Amino acid sequence: MRTRSVLTAASIAFAFTCANAQTTTGSFMHGGVLRDYRLYVPAIYNGATPVPLIFNLHGYTSDAVQQEFYADFRPIADTANFILVHPNGTLDPLGNRFWDTFGAGTVDDLGFLTALIDTLSAHYNIDADRVYSTGMSNGGFMSYDLACFRSTRIAAIASVTGNMLASRLASCAAVHPTPVMQIHGTADPTVNYNGGSGMLPIEDLVTHWVQFNNCSPTPTITQVPDINTTDGCTAEHRVYTGGDAGSTVEFYKIIGGEHTWPGSPVVIGVTNQDFSARVEIWRFFRQYRLSALTGIEVATSARSPFTITQDIAGDLVIRFSSSRDRMITLFGATGQMVAQQRSATDLAHVAVRTPGVYLVSVLEGDKRSTQRVVCF
């Protein structure tokens, strides 16, 4: 009988090299629901080095395709070399797609988006230190949810016309300084600038994150040049600096702006054209790494603190440099959890009976390390 072998991320990187920019679709079951997404991989990606991952989340009644074109980060990804994912929310009773960010708890969107990070990491060389989320409206709400309840996976977020419920913010459990960018119009008829219906006034939301990060309460205020005098609005840029671990909060106040994405070629209502939200969001994101904000190294496949081989029986043999308590989780290529076990020694065995691509995730205290493997 031939001994089985296992290939780590470095060995299989070439298999995932994209000769041209690619937009693909994917899906997997999560919480008994088939979840789907669109993925954009730029031509510059070659799999040799870890790259950032950006979530671009659609608003209520919208979907992944519309968000991909409405708030189009693809030209930036083409030169900055990051992977861009547009997940779909589920359908509410009226048939509209939404993110369950209002505390109802009927859909596990947080679990789905977390599983999506792991799924993509099983196929692409994602830098776990540089995972970010942005979104329009309900997608902005969902980005705040990720900042609050998945802060160990998210480095920074940006919300365009989004907000938080006061009750949701009260239960926010972010565990590290969290850079936040908020972009909002003062004449937004959908998510009111002054709050209401349980939502915070936008300036109160910004103040919360300024205080959470221990930023200076006095911002640097810059008037955005009014380069388009016919768009019906102007913009003011507020930057709060001096936060813990170098964190900042930025706020674009669109004076007279409505429920729209600044700089979008798709004009719906009063849309500010004096700056590009996508350009400013990437400029904001690229400053931050999760490890710098937490003080804990975020290991990626390229610098994983463990090695993996596969024995003749098909078990993964995971070797560590020391003995300590660890939780080992094995995910399949579609994001489902295949196995989970606790280990306190420097050697662990995880049974794998089916060939394929897997993601091994090891949690040691607050430090999570991942490594992709191909089992034969």
Structure, explained:
The chain is α+β, with helices and mostly antiparallel strands and 376 residues long. The chain folds into two domains: 13-294, Alpha/Beta hydrolase fold, catalytic domain (Rossmann fold), CATH 3.40.50; 301-375, Sandwich (Immunoglobulin-like). Helices cover 20% and strands 33% of the residues. Strand 9, helix 6 (166-170) and strand 10 form a beta-alpha-beta unit. The longest helix has 15 residues, at 109-123. It starts with 5 loop residues before the first strand and ends with a strand.
Count of β-strands: 20
Biggest sheet, in brief?
10 strands, mixed
Q: CATH homologous superfamily of the largest domain?
A: Alpha/Beta hydrolase fold, catalytic domain
- State the end-to-end CA separation: 13 Å
CATH structural architecture of the largest domain = 3-Layer(aba) Sandwich
Please, how many domains?
Answer: 2
Find the structural class using helix and strand composition.
alpha+beta
Helix and strand run:
EHEEEHHEEEHEHEHEHEEEHHEEEEEEE
Low-confidence runs of at least 5 consecutive residues: 1-19
The largest beta-sheet arranges its strands as: 2-3-5-4-8-9-10-13-12-11
**Beta-strand content bin:** 25-35%
How helical, in percent, are the residues? 10-25%
Rounded radius of gyration (Å):
21 Å
The overall pLDDT, averaged over residues, is 89
CATH class of the largest domain: Alpha Beta
Q: The CATH topology of the largest domain, please? A: Rossmann fold
Silhouette: globular
Number of helices: 9
